[in-house]
Input
Amino acid sequence: MPLYFQVATRLQELIEKGEIGVGARIENEVDLAERLGVSRPTTRRAIQYLVERGMLVRKRGVGTQVVHPKVRRPVELSSLYDDLVAGDRAPRTEVLRLEVMPASDTVATALEIAPGTPVTWIERLRYAGGEPLALMHNAIPLDVLPLTGDDLAGHGLYELLRSGGLTPRIATQVIGARSATSAEAKVLQEKRGASLLTMTRTAWDAGGRALEYGSHVYRASRYSFEINLSAG
Amino acid sequence: MPLYFQVATRLQELIEKGEIGVGARIENEVDLAERLGVSRPTTRRAIQYLVERGMLVRKRGVGTQVVHPKVRRPVELSSLYDDLVAGDRAPRTEVLRLEVMPASDTVATALEIAPGTPVTWIERLRYAGGEPLALMHNAIPLDVLPLTGDDLAGHGLYELLRSGGLTPRIATQVIGARSATSAEAKVLQEKRGASLLTMTRTAWDAGGRALEYGSHVYRASRYSFEINLSAG
DNA sequence: TACCTCAGTTTGTCATGACAAAGTATTGAC
DNA sequence: GTCAATACTTTGTCATGACAAACTGAGGTA
Output
């Protein structure tokens, strides 16, 4: 574990425990570095890390203050399944459809591939706490990762991508809303015309290769997106 | 202008012009630093800046590659008004209500202030391209900034905050959806029961002071949120 | 041919030193 | 007493040097 990360972790613990209160200034960089026996760049990097997470704020000529005792995590590239597991909401997945088919224009445009390129097309129904929560559609280029229904029933898509050595690094999401169609209302156990949250996402790996396109609808009555922002 | 920023800007221009294509590797840090006559930390910092914006990806032992020719801006702490101005969509604001009143429990909890603390409560109708787009409710603690209706008609709320010396640094947003009430449908020129996007946001300044609470509804037929993420 | 080892390349981490810029507090003059 | 100039504190930027860790590819061996 890098030294700067150890320092950041120690600072974070002090703040979370309340030993350095909100609004209080932390020790200046030079003294802190000396006391911990590390160099100032290392100390700066540790502080920078916490600043980026929204815990600290720096002011030249003034010092570094605590602004929030909890880490505000940046929006993460995780899948719904991961979020639900983390939230202890007992997710279950029903795979409604899984087949290899040529990419439609919509999918091809989103993934920046040629129309007709074979992709794995997946339709899943995601349950949480025994109730349906979301209807999910995904397209994964066949040459990126072959998938089976068994995998998908018990794991999140992003988990499968990662175990296949594929790491999503960049994604574009569009969040909107619309009314449920009859078919959607039926599988989601909502009334016809109920409001749904929609989210489409395209994710790329470090090499700029498109990994996944997703077009999902969530029951607005049971789900919302939470986003924490921090401006540098 | 800092040296590392000048280097980053030069690199960015090269990539945006396409002189360094997507997938291509850029010069290694040591050589680049020497050629530009700067130190390696400065070069690293410039590259780091572009990595954080999603243009470049680094791999130890391999090099630094271009993954996207355009900067993927992080989600910014801007207001809808600013977004619309930037998108050339001719925003107009109608102030429906503006009064000082004691904070409700909901508002007080969001702003982390005592219930009953005086806040300015604002209801606005935002138009874009001549059509209503969003119904916006805001609460600003009175001791943060006094506001008048004239200000709000011609400027975004965040613009006013900034001109008052208040800089939002951290915000939490929750995005959801629901059906329009009759009153909402009427002012937004939607049918009753139409799907609306909802967004609530609380913004804090660098000192951890809550600046603003907002609870807005957008016509889902005319608006959606776009979010770009980059991990790691 | 297939696999392993090892050298080379490139980024990751860390230390030390120095000066600049911005904000705060003190001191002095009027 | 008030205001302005000055000194001090603290973060921001930059240079130099060094070693570590991860990946690549060539070469040797079974």
